[in-house]
Amino acid sequence: MIRTRPGDVDYETTGEGYAAQRRPDPRIAALIHESLGDARTVLNVGAGAGSYEPTDRYVLAVEPSARMRAQRPPTAAPAVDAVAESLPFDDDSFDAVMATVTVHQWPDPVRGLASLRRVARGPVVVLTFDGDALDRFWLADYVPELIAAERRRFPAIATIARVVSSPTSPAEVVEVPVPIDCTDGFTEAFYARPERFLDPRVRAAQSAWGFVAPAATTRAVEALRADLASGRWDERYGHLRTQPHFTGSLRLIVGRP
Questions:
Q1: Where do the H-state alpha helices sit in 16-155?
Q2: CATH of the domain at 76
């Protein structure tokens, strides 16, 4: 078994291709940007290649991986080499702070989230996955090792909500439906397109596969390939090919001061 812990992916060696495979989905982006309210200054922490950063506000990014920073487009916001747990900014420096699909990568998520709350005058917006809902996805039937690894990695939704909220304003937790043609290539984005998992480039842009033993990955991919060829996958899950949305584990958490 491959052990996991928060902050356990080396994007200097595995981060190539994220900008191409993990393109922000406009519908998910709209939810994030709406949650930022009327904020004019936004800090994006764990910004990666710049997914989901609004273009109509002043944005500053924080990203510790040089390889990920190098994939940011020329028009993207400037990126600071720093980590969530030790943000180099004064208290209340930004109107809002966002963190999208990154908290599970932080060595100390609670400390990092508290740092986000410290530098935000307004909302803290976190896009993440609910470990308790990961097995809603059919991929659990093919590679349960991946689901188990992810469940260990993601901080509890209740913990995130507690840290980014205020005593008088509990955080809002929203189940985010994944559209059938989602352009952001996380695992549940392909709930209706199972063939995509046969492409190693797709799996390479999903960090969870790095915590599955190669033999288990090979077994899962070959089982899926066989079931697609025989029609067995469609017998069990074919209804998903026309289902407009899938409500799985994707969550948007909004904490307001």
A1: 18-21, 26-35, 66-70, 109-119, 144-153
A2: 3.40.50.150
Query: Each residue of 164-208: pLDDT tens digit?
Result: 998 888 999 999 999 999 999 999 999 999 999 999 999 988 989
- Helices and strands (H, E) in the chain, number of each type: 10, 9
Element (H, E) at 202: helix 200-204
- At 97-134, the pLDDT tens digits run 999 999 998 999 999 999 999 999 999 999 999 999 99
In a domain, 148, yes or no: yes
Which residues are within 8 A (CB) of 194 and not within 5 positions of it... i.e. 6 or more apart?
A: 138, 224, 228, 233, 237
How many CB atoms are located within 10 Å of the residue 117 CB? Answer: 17
State both tokens at 121.
């005058």
The domain containing residue 36 runs over which residues? Answer: 11-255
Has residue 3 been placed in a domain? no
pTM across the whole model: 0.89
